[in-house]
Amino acid sequence: MSKPVVAIVGRPNVGKSTLFNALAGEMISIVKDTPGVTRDRIYAEVTWLDREFTLIDTGGIEPDSKDIILAQMREQAQIAIDTADVIIFITDVRQGLQDSDSKVADMLRRSGKPVVLVVNKVDSFQKLMADVYEFYNLGIGDPIPISASSRLGLGDMLDAVAAHFPEHSAEEEEDERPRIAIVGKPNVGKSSIINKLVGENRVIVSNIAGTTRDAIDTEITWNGKEYVFIDTAGLRRKNKIKEELERYSIIRTVTAVERADVVLVVIDAVEGVTEQDAKIAGIAHERGKGVIIIVNKWDAIEKNDKTMYEYEKNVRQVLSYMPYAEIMYVSAKTGQRLPKLFDMIDMVLENQTLRISTGVLNEIMMEAVAMQQPPSDKGKRLKLYYITQVAVKPPTFVIFVNDKELMHFSYTRYLENKIREAFGFKGTSLKFFIRERK
Ligand code: GDP
Ligand code: GDP
């Protein structure tokens, strides 16, 4: 089930970053071991009571002149309207109601998206509450007073946000068609791949109605089976500022990946694999999605018998955190190997939902332990009692041990490799939790 997306919009200096950090800092849950992924605080996973959501900060660099402020705010509001389920519109009680606030509020109201109006810097409810009421004039509902820096009122605000989360609709539950997100830098060939798949195979294509986010969903039927492709390339935004464009493309990648079962990470063969590719692929890895690495434009490079080997070496090095992902060398231009994509997708889907019985898992673990002694520290040796699979998508295992501290990262990796030797699990990350049993 995909998580709701919540976006923060507001003028410079009202406290967007402070609020973002307050929400992300305490309740954040991020897989830490993704090297190459710099965390520039564009998005965070937040847990509030029993609900989880992805928080995005649409505000990038701060403009310095008044007209630019409004233009930038409109841009941010549009991104929020396009990508979020709920928008937090944040204002500042100290600066008071500003003209640009009203203009953006109008825009948000017209979009029909749920908006939670927040008034920040209400550090003392007693003294400042009277000044909060003027924000009713925005016409987008009750203003909720908070103080982001002293973490006041955040609970009430999150309740108001969560009240707008879509109920898991029966329709969505029943939709068992696999969702495939195509992500990658601009111009790597994402649209070309979709167009080729659509054009070559007399497939049934429909832009699915009710898509709220600005990814374009395309239904493709292959061998009688329906797949939904989520394309992040379809809509392009004109923005001269490079940082803003990059922020926007990351927001779109996060929201598309969130909805997907399998993610196709497209890399440009001519350009080679880059740090930006690593950042994008890391978004899929963090979320435990199925991943296939697509090296596109394979027609456009000079090849000899070592080319594929060299490419693989580079890709494995830059995307070192996902050795489990298969690499495909394709051409959207000629169609080379594209038909094989569906077999690959099916395999990854199967592996994402593979369940291994506890008996078999324990046999493998015992064998692994016999072959390589578990680590020890100060005379105490790690004992592994029991392993069991507790979830799929991604496959998740719990290992019960005598002392968690003794379980070294490299030994978990060793066990993961043994499990992969036995079952493959190609295309999917595996998660491990270590628990103590007294
Ligand atoms: P942004 O530009 O919207 O991201 O705003 P920032 O988060 O950078 O905050 C702008 C300034 O307002 C900083 O100096 C913050 O310390 C301050 N600030 C943020 N939240 C509060 C608050 O709740 N109360 C007060 N008094 N100051 C705050
Ligand atoms: P997107 O921004 O990732 O959707 O990339 P596009 O699909 O718009 O492609 C960007 C450019 O790369 C276009 O000029 C395409 O014609 C070209 N292109 C895409 N795929 C291939 C390919 O397989 N081979 C070659 N030679 N060019 C390609």
Automatic annotation (TrEMBL):
GO terms for molecular function: GTP binding; ribosome binding. Residues 4-169, 178-353 form the EngA-type G domain. The keyword Oxidoreductase does not apply. Coiled coil: none annotated. InterPro entries: AAA+_ATPase, G_ENGA, GTP-bd, GTPase_Der, KH_dom-like, KH_dom-like_a/b, P-loop_NTPase, Small_GTP-bd. It comes from the Bacteria. GO terms for biological process: ribosome biogenesis. GTP 2 binds at residues 184-191, 231-235, 296-299. The keyword Transport does not apply. Associates with the 50S ribosomal subunit. Belongs to the TRAFAC class TrmE-Era-EngA-EngB-Septin-like GTPase superfamily. EngA (Der) GTPase family. HAMAP family: GTPase_Der (MF_00195). This is GTPase Der. The gene is der.
